[in-house]
Amino acid sequence: MRLNFCSLLIISIFVSIAFSKAPEIIKLNPPDMKKGSLTMEAFKLRKSTREFDTKDLSLQDLSDLLWAANGVNRPEEKKRTAPSAINAQDIDIYVVTKEAVYLYNAFENQLEKITDGDYRNIVAGRQENMAVAPVFLVLVSDLSRFRFGDESTKLTWAAMDAGIVSQNISIFCASRNLATVPRATMDKDKLRKILKLKDSQKLMLNHPVSYMK
Predict the structure, then answer these.
(1) 86: phi > 0 → left, psi -120 to 50 → alpha, else beta; which?
(2) With CB atoms counted within 10 Å of each terminal CB, which end of the chain scores lower, N or C?
(3) Is the confidence at residue 19, as pLDDT, over 60?
(4) Helices then strands (H, E): number in the chain?
(5) Domains of the chain (ranges plus CATH)?
(6) Is there a contact between 165 and 87 (Cβ–Cβ < 8 Å)?
C-alpha cells in the first residue's frame, strides 16, 4: 500500500512538471534609475564577454535591461530610449529564456509569451557554449514600419537602428556588471519559425546576457 502511494506521488509530480507552463504575461518593474555606474565609467567598463553564468536574472535586472535597451522614456510622446530612422521604432526585442520565448512590449512594460520551451541553443547557433546564458535578447527589425524607402534603404536603416539598441544593451550591462556580447550568429531559419515572424521582419542581432561568471 505504501509502495503504491509513493508511486502515485511520484507520477503526480512528473505530470505536474510536464504540464506546467511559463506565464503568458510577465509584468516588468519600473526601471530603477538609482542603480549602475556613471555614463563615462560604463563606457570605460564596456567589453564583450563570452563566458556566462547560469543564474537567472532577477526581474528587476531584466526590467532595467529591457528599458535601457529600447524602453519608453517619454510616454507622453511615445518616444524610446533608442532613436530610430524616421522614428519608425522598427526594432522589437524577443526574450529567449529556458522556460519560454517572449516579446517585449515596451509601451505596456511587459513580456508577452510567444511560445513555451527552451530555444537558447537555436540562438546560440554554432557557438554552443553561449547557450548556458539565462537570457538572450534577439533584435528584430520590422521593415514595414518604415513609411518610405526602397528595400536597400530600409535594410540600412534597420542595421543602424539595431546597432543603437545593441549599444544600449552593452553600455547597460557594463554599468551593472553583467556579461554580454553582440552577435549576428544564430540559426535564422529555425528562429524565424519559433518567433513566428512575418516576411517584413528581419533578424538582426542577439545578445546573451548573464551575471559575470
Answers:
(1) left
(2) N
(3) no
(4) 6, 9
(5) 22-211 (3.40.109.10)
(6) no
Residue 202 near residue 155 (C-beta atoms within 8 A): yes
C-alpha distance across the termini of the chain, in Å: 48
Pick from 178, 174, 179, 146: nearest CA to 160: 146
**Whether the model pTM is above 0.70:** yes
Block residue for cell numbers 528595400: 151
Cell of 197: 515572424
Dist CA 126 CA 131 (whole Å): 10
Q: How confident is the model at residue 78 (pLDDT cuts 50, 70, 90)?
A: very high
Please choose, from the candidates 85, 80, 189, 179, the residue with its C-alpha nearest in 3D space to the C-alpha of residue 137: 179
SS3 of residue 81 by DSSP: coil
Identity of residue 123: V
Alpha helices, DSSP H, located in the chain: 2-19, 39-45, 59-70, 120-124, 151-175, 188-195
Dump pLDDT digits (tens) for 122-131: 999 999 999 9
Q: How far apart are CA 2 and CA 6, in angstroms?
A: 6
Helix, strand, or coil (residue 196): coil
Measured over the CA atoms of residue 18, residue 128, residue 189 and residue 82, the dihedral's sign is positive
